[in-house]
Each structure stands twice: as structure tokens, then as C-alpha cells.
Design brief:
The complex is a heterodimer.
Chain A lengths: L2 H19 L6 H18 L12 H4 L1
Helix pairs in contact in A: 1-2
Chain B lengths: L1 E6 L3 H6 L1 H10 L4 E7 L14 E5 L1 H9 L7 H15 L4 E4 L4 H9 L4 E3 L2 E2 L5 E2 L3 H8 L11 H8 L16 H14 L3 E6 L11 H14 L3 E7 L4 H13 L4 E5 L2 H9 L3 E4 L3 H9 L2 E6 L5 H4 L7 E5 L18 H4 L3 H12 L3 H10 L4 E5 L19 H18 L1 H22 L5 H32 L6 H20 L6 H9 L6 H39 L3
Parallel strand pairs in B: 1-2, 1-4, 2-3, 4-5, 8-9, 8-11, 9-10, 11-12, 12-13
Antiparallel strand pairs in B: 6-7, 13-14
Classes of the chains: A mainly alpha, B alpha/beta.
């Protein structure tokens, strides 16, 4: 991961945390924003990874 | 109706699901069916007859924009937003996710559709699946590979396509493909063609060009009238040139067939057999109706993504570390699993497959049984993809595995369907057992089935005990000692399950609740209640099937003269 990507990832995490902080009053637009931010985060994290590396597992997530 | 199918994997995965897309088209002949794929998979779009539009997801472009200092800060966000606006504009009625990674889950969360099936991530990053089968697909990542369903079957069942039997080909030929194939066919002259795909996308899945050379020479000695087409994508040409030269020096009529996917598909349609590693070419051959011999090396997992073609033959190395995980390189100092597959064995098996000698395949497999395992794909007997070992003898483990797969299918389909299909499943299983183990005596079957039934009744008894325990725990789940005691009993039960192949898969469900010491007490109690309920239902299905097969076999025995 490049320095730029590290910075951007940090920024996206902060942004996601800010939206989450408003969770109680979260409207549809905020929910969409959260998903956008998470998707961008995953795109950075998955750079150079194979599909299997980033496979979602509900049991592992729990 | 408008349907969007999301498949953000590799070319092989997209081609593998071509049969599922064909069945989806047959079920919805008037629908607009669009496919969202990674940009590098767009080259196969002309082959996909069932799809109206292919939408490209520029994953690399988006990742570049998120990493390069020169890229404008919001470039990737705007690109993504533009793509989603385009998808939004279509107003899809149904969005289907055939991918199981988080990225596709987030993307599905952003796609507005009336109905969504497959992994969708909610705001807290939890997966929602919209179908028992997609949930199962997610859970089975950790399962022993021979106990699982093929991905195509999971997709078919999840989308209600199991009763669709389309006669249409899964892929379509193109003019460009035919022209490329004609050039190759001219090189073969009047000879029959056997295609060989000797390179894969992952070095771990390669068998080695030297071994391929030896195998092809041995095969050619048996079939001198056959032309060998060494398949090559344009970027593989230089790597494969030494193989073709070595074969030509030995007098083997081999030539290099440099083609696109379209060309390879047309060439395969005119070939007798494909000998391939775990590559997308095997899925092209399956759609083309060409015989297939697959060599599984490294991380190749035939049970989930093997060639989806009845009669395809798969060779697996018996090296203990295979199959290994995809993401890490081989940890051995030599590629042990590839080394263990003898060239002579592959040549002999290829010869048997080429000649359609089903019964001699077993003899050849037995001769090399210390090194390899030979599986034969059976798509017809049980109604879903299975690959029994051709040398398999009647054993508790083997029969238990088939019974458990069928029972699990009935359970995943839901209880209403279970009642309707139990008779059909019983008839299929009985016929399959008789055909797979023809030498097994009736008393052996009787003994085996009675033993399974006895164990099933034991499980039933234990479950009744757990149900009483749950009623007691209902008011006391906050009491850590009582919860611990209940979980300890579940652990003892799990150990008993481990010993029985028929109920071995129950332990997976138990693992999740036993090892969960993070969830709050009520959540854990709820998980325990659900798991006990699941085991109770599955045991009932097991017992019904066992009794039905037992009765069927008894009837057959009494009808046969002594």
C-alpha cells in the first residue's frame, strides 16, 4: 500500500466514523454514503489481492 | 422484467456460471438480463448468448485512482457514482450476486432493486443473503471440500432453476471464433483433435511443461492418428513454444493453437477431448460438449468449481497438503502435489477418456492409486453435481457422505419442498447406490442402513434432551454456569457426531455456537435454540430417507429369487 493510499484509507475511515456517529438520525442518504465509503475502503485494501483473500465470511465476521 | 447479475470474479468463474445464466434466461425468456463483471472479463461477452448487456466494473481503474498522487481526489468516487447512476437508471427488479466478497456486498447494498439475492452488506458490515443457499455458500467456505455442493448447483437452487432443463447451448459461437478455429483445423487436416491447456493463471496450479511433454508423447504413441492442439492465449505463446518444438522433434503431430476465448470455444466444439489444468478452458469445453480430463494441482478445488459436465474426469494428487489455500505460495521446497501425478497415469487415463472406456478407467486408477485419485463427474444420478472416486468401495464414509448431501439439499430447500421431494430423492439414491456399488450384497446394505438408523435415533433422543434443557435455560440464560454446563453437553454431543460420517456435517453448526463466547447471553441462547432446531429437522429428514431406502431395498430383496 502506498503512502497516498494509507492517507486516503485513514480519511475514509474517519469519514465513515463521522457518519456512523450520527447513526441515531441516519437517513437514507447517510446509509448510502456509508456504503460508498466502505466500498472505496475495500477497493484500496483489496489492491493486489486475490478474490479469495477478500472473501466475506459471516462466521468469521461474527 | 429486468435482472442484474453481479459476478465480480475472474473469467473462469463467469464462464462456469454460463449454464446458470442460460437457465435463468429459459425461466425468464422476456426479461432483460444484464451482467456486471470486472473489465478484464468483458472479452467473453460475445460468447454469452443469454445476456443482453455486459456492464464493466473497472476495478483496476478505480484502485489506480485511489492510489496515485496525480489522480484527482474524487476521481474514483465519481467514476463509481457514475456507474451506480447508470445501474440505478435501469430500475432492476432483481439483482443477483454470484460473488462472495465484501466489495460485491457493498456494491449490492448500493444497487436499488425490488429484490436482491446473494450477499448484500448492511450498514454495520453484516451480510444478508436473501436465500438459504447463498447463506450456505458463505458457511461452506470452511467445510471439507468433498462435503460441499458445486457453486453452479448452489446458484441454481438459490434462484429456483433446478427444474429448468434448457436444451440451448450455454455459450454461442461467433464469426471471429469460427475463423480462428478454421485456421487451427486446417493444421490438423483430417485427424481428430485433442486440445491441451498446459498453463494456468497461477503457478501453483501448473503441472509442469516437462510432464505435459512426456504425457502427450505417451498419449500420442497410443493414438498416432490424433493431432494435438496446444492451446495458447497470445501472451502464453512464447512460454509454450519449447513444448511444441519438443513434441515435434519426437514426431508427435502437435501444433500451437493461438486463439481468443471465442476461437478456443469454436476449436473445442470440433475437438474430441480437452486435457486441462484448473483453467477457464475447461468451462468452455463443458459448454461445447467436449470430453474433459482435468488435472487438479495446488489450490484447485474440483468439488466447488470443477468442470460442470457429466462424464468429465478429474485427476487429483494424493499429496496430503493439496488442495492448499489460494492466497499463499506453495510452502514446500518442491511442488510436491504436481510431482506426485505421474505422466504415464495421465496419458493412460486420457486414453481411456478419449476412447469412452468407462469401466477400464477404474483399472487404470487402481494401478496408480498410491499417487492419485480419479473422480468422474456425475450430473444425472442425484440431480446435482457429484464426483465419486472411480475406485470407491462400499463404506460407511462413502455412503454417509452421499446421504448427508441429499438430506442437506432437502433441508436447504425448505420443509415444504422436502415433503414433496423425499420420494424422488429416495428413488434416486437407491438407484445411485446400486449402480455405484454393484458388488455390495443385500445384507451389507441392510447392516449399514440399520446402523445409520440406530445412530439417527440416538441423535433424536439427545435432541429431545437438549430441547428440555433449552426450556430450562430459557429463564436462566444469564447464569454463566448454567450456560457453560449446557454448552459442555453440546461439546460431548459434537464429539459423538464426529465419529459418524452421516452426521459429521452437524458438527459444523455446533462449532459455531460452542466456540461463540463473544455474543451477549441472549444472542448466544438464540443461536443455540436455532442450532438445536436445525439438527432436529435435519435428523428427521435423515431418518425418513434412511427408512424409505431401507423399505425400498427390502422390497427389492423380497422380489428377487434366492
Amino acid at each position: 500500500m502506498t503512502e497516498n493510499q494509507k492517507d486516503l484509507l485513514h480519511f475514509l475511515k474517519l469519514a465513515a466514523a463521522q457518519v456512523r456517529h450520527r447513526m441515531k438520525t441516519m437517513d437514507h442518504k447517510d446509509q448510502v454514503t456509508i456504503r460508498y465509503l466502505q466500498l472505496l475502503e475495500d477497493l484500496i485494501k483489496e489492491q493486489g489481492h486475490t478474490y479469495e483473500d477478500s472473501r466475506y465470511s459471516a462466521s468469521a465476521a461474527r | 422484467m429486468k435482472i442484474l447479475v453481479v459476478s465480480l470474479l475472474r473469467v473462469g468463474d463467469v464462464l462456469m456460471s454460463a449454464g446458470v445464466l442460460r437457465d435463468l434466461r429459459a425461466k425468464h425468456p422476456e426479461a432483460q438480463i444484464d451482467l456486471l463483471v470486472n473489465s478484464q472479463c468483458a472479452s467473453v461477452a460475445p460468447l454469452l448468448a443469454s445476456i443482453n448487456n455486459v456492464i464493466e466494473f473497472d476495478r483496476h481503474g478505480l484502485q489506480r485512482g485511489l492510489g496515485e498522487a496525480s489522480a484527482p481526489f474524487f476521481e474514483s468516487y465519481e467514476k463509481l457514482s457514475g456507474l451506480l447512476d447508470r445501474i440505478e437508471g435501469e430500475n432492476y427488479d432483481l439483482a443477483i450476486n454470484l460473488t462472495q466478497n465484501r466489495l460485491s456486498g457493498w456494491l449490492m447494498g448500493l444497487i436499488e432493486a425490488r429484490e436482491r439475492r446473494g450477499l448484500v452488506m448492511d450498514n454495520d458490515g453484516r451480510g444478508v443473503f436473501g436465500s438459504n443457499w447463498f447463506r450456505y455458500m458463505n458457511q461452506q467456505i470452511d467445510l471439507e471440500s468433498s462435503e460441499v455442493f458445486h457453486y453452479n448447483d448452489i446458484f441454481r437452487y438459490a434462484l429456483g432453476l433446478e427444474s429448468v432443463h434448457s436444451q440451448q447451448p450455454a455459450l454461442q459461437e461467433t464469426e471471429r471464433g469460427r475463423a480462428e478455429a478454421d485456421t487451427c483445423l486446417a493444421q490438423a487436416g483430417d485427424r481428430k483433435i485433442v486440445c491441451v491447456q498446459a498453463l494456468s493463471s497461477d503457478i501453483k496450479k501448473d503441472w509442469g511443461l516437462d510432464r505435459f511433454a512426456k504425457m502427450i508423447a505417451a498419449f500420442s504413441a497410443r493414438h498416432p492418428d490424433v493431432a494435438i492442439a496446444i492451446l495458447a492465449a497470445p501472451f502464453e505463446k512464447e512460454k509454450l513454444r519449447p513444448l511444441v518444438s519438443a513434441l515435434s522433434e519426437q514426431g508427435v503431430p502437435a501444433f500451437m493453437a493461438v486463439t481468443s476465448f471465442e476461437g478456443a470455444y469454436s476449436l473445442l466444439k470440433n475437438s474430441e477431448l480437452l486435457i486441462s489444468l484448473d483453467t477457464s478452458l475447461k468451462h468452455l469445453a463443458a459448454a461445447a460438449g467436449t470430453k474433459i480430463l482435468e488435472i487438479c494441482v495446488g489450490s484447485s478445488d474440483p468439488y466447488r468449481t470443477g468442470a460442470d459436465a457429466h462424464g468429465a474426469v478429474i485427476i487429483r494428487s494424493k499429496e496430503s497438503c493439496a488442495p492448499c489455500v489460494h492466497s499463499s505460495p506453495c510452502h514446500r521446497d518442491h511442488h510436491a502435489c504436481a510431482k506426485r501425478i505421474p505422466s504415464e497415469a495421465v496419458a493412460s487415463i486420457a486414453s481411456e477418456v478419449f476412447e469412452n472406456r468407462k469401466f477400464q478407467l477404474k483399472t487404470v486408477a487402481e494401478a496408480f492409486e498410491n499417487e492419485i485419485e480419479v473422480l468422474r463427474v456425475d450430473r444425472k444420478s442425484l440431480g446435482f453435481w457429484i464426483a465419486p472416486n472411480v475406485t470407491e468401495m462400499l463404506s460407511e464414509a462413502a455412503v454417509g457422505r452421499w446421504l448427508d448431501l441429499v438430506c442437506r439439499k432437502i433441508w436447504l430447500q425448505g420443509s415444504r419442498t422436502a415433503l414433496e421431494t423425499i420420494g424422488t430423492e429416495m428413488m434416486r439414491l437407491t438407484a445411485f447406490f446400486r449402480a455405484t456399488y454393484p458388488t455390495a450384497a443385500d445384507y451389507e446394505w441392510k447392516h449399514l442402513l440399520e446402523d445409520f438408523e440406530r445412530r439417527g435415533m440416538e441423535v433424536e433422543g439427545r435432541i429431545n434432551g437438549f430441547k428440555a434443557g433449552i426450556r430450562y435455560l430459557h429463564g436462566n440464560y444469564e447464569d454463566a454456569n448454567k450456560m457453560k454446563e449446557f454448552v459442555r453437553n453440546l461439546m460431548t454431543f459434537r464429539e459423538k457426531m464426529r465419529a459418524s460420517p452421516l452426521f459429521a456435517s452437524f458438527r459444523r453448526s455446533l462449532d459455531a455456537v460452542i466456540e461463540d463466547d463473544i455474543s451477549p447471553a441472549f444472542t448466544r441462547f438464540r443461536h443455540i435454540t436455532e442450532t438445536v432446531g436445525e439438527i432436529e429437522t435435519r435428523t428427521k429428514i435423515h431418518l425418513r430417507i434412511l427408512r424409505a431406502i431401507g423399505n425400498q431395498m427390502d422390497d427389492a430383496m423380497s422380489a428377487e429369487p434366492l
